[in-house]
Amino acid sequence: MAISRLQPLFLLLLLRAFTSLPTQAAARGGQDPSEDGGHGSFSRNLLEDKPRITEEMARGYMSNAELETAIHAFGSRCSNISRVYSIGKSVNHFPLWVIEISDKPREREAEPAFKFIGNVHGDEPVGREVLMRLANWLCDNYLKDPLATLIVENIHLHILPAMNPDGFTLRWRGNANNIDLNRDFPDQFFSVNNDVNHRQPETKAIMDWVKQEHFTASASLHGGALVANYPWDGTRDTGKRYYGCPDDKIFKHMASVYSQSHYNMSLSKEFEGGITNGAFWYPIYGGMQDWNYIHGGCFELTLEISDTKWPKAAELPVIWEHNRMSMLNLLASLIKSGVHGRIFAADTGRPIPGSVMIMGIDSKVSAGRTFGDYHRIVAPVVASMRGFRSKSTRIVLEQDQAVSLDFILDPDGTREQMKLPQNDWGCHCNNHKLFHIHESHLWMYLLTMSLLLTLYVLFKRKMASRLLTYRIYSPRRPVAV
Ligand SMILES: *[C@@H]1O[C@H](CO)[C@@H](O)[C@H](O)[C@H]1NC(C)=O
Ligand SMILES: *[C@@H]1O[C@H](CO)[C@@H](O)[C@H](O)[C@H]1NC(C)=O
Ligand SMILES: [Zn+2]
């Protein structure tokens, strides 16, 4: 057993010795090859990770106990738009506290969920500080600032300020077992992390969380560089080159939303536009980002938000300011673009957890169990579910405009043989409420249609021919149907 498990690792290490090593000692992140004897970024146990963070440097940063207090203080101060919960415990039994922010934080809604994770690496503490500032900013500006209000009302935002509190206390990269958590996830190419018994509790907590919450997108925060990194993080043969996932375009777009909204990330001399494909920068294996996309349908970015891993605490307010619009715009882009809708069974009228797929893109996004809601960045889409005939549609999307699109699928007659997943929120699914929600969508369509019709009639004389040209030839100038 052990031999077949380890073979890929040996092969990898061998290959690694011959491939060029990354020059950056980065965050996401490889260790400096000069530090770990040339094993590159793959070794699970960090061979040498000397604590170099002095008490002086740590001054001004919240300790874990202070962070915990701040999280609970936030929870009571902003209790009507937040909920505090824990997704598990670290090796040294510190709770992994999460703040959920939403106008209905204790309820499930047919809305996209987003997660921010900070302090994945113990010696990269900027994320945990910035995330607390984000939470507080949203709370302070809800119903005052339109962007804050938009986010609170349309997204369920989950913030885990510290994924690796033990590493923070130890002032090193890995967790208390000195394992790099961003190498501990099951990998698509190599099986070294497949043994559940060796999985770290922090990793397990994230994996369970992702399976439970139906996140649409997410980002983890790191330090040591200034760039928005997107999948894939690794290549099959460990070669260092651009290796895009099926949703490459969408990821580039997401990463650009972040870098372009940042104070100066997009001005990077090292990374064009301030974004990079992970494997192009340097391949890593067992990372959290690729696992999220593959197993959670969650579009995750890895954000390097400060050149220095552990800057002086006095710089934190400036770093937060530099990242504020990026974080807010990334969240807003979830609502302001893409296709959102629900999938229903025609016979029962109940929401079903089918999946949607964009023609030509080899990846599926599944709908939520409770409401059958899906949130997909861009179109055309096909809704499908085993036991139902698939339905497809064609829509043209305007940039920065979201489209709402529900599907009602007809059973194809094979459904008796399969057990439909039970809706775990029965009380919310009484038919009255269900059709009420659906009816409101119908009204929205009718309203949009009549609006379009009126516009058309109004401009018919002058613009008829031009409008037609637009509809047919210009992909940017769309008509939503
Ligand atoms: C939260 O509290 C504020 C201030 O009391 C109130 O204006 C607002 O409507 C509340 N929001 C929600 C979602 O309950
Ligand atoms: C961005 O600004 C920071 C702070 O002023 C500076 O240290 C960093 O070098 C700048 N980076 C780029 C890519 O311009
Ligand atoms: Zn990192």
Automatic annotation (TrEMBL):
Residues 60-334 form the Peptidase M14 domain. Gene3D superfamilies: Carboxypeptidase-like, regulatory domain (2.60.40.1120), Zn peptidases (3.40.630.10). One of its GO terms (molecular function) is zinc ion binding. Keywords: Carboxypeptidase, Glycoprotein, Hydrolase, Membrane, Metal-binding, Protease, Signal, Transmembrane, Transmembrane helix, Zinc. The keyword rRNA-binding does not apply. GO terms for biological process: peptide metabolic process; protein processing. One of its GO terms (cellular component) is extracellular space. The keyword Zinc applies. This is Peptidase M14 domain-containing protein. It comes from Paspalum notatum var. saurae.
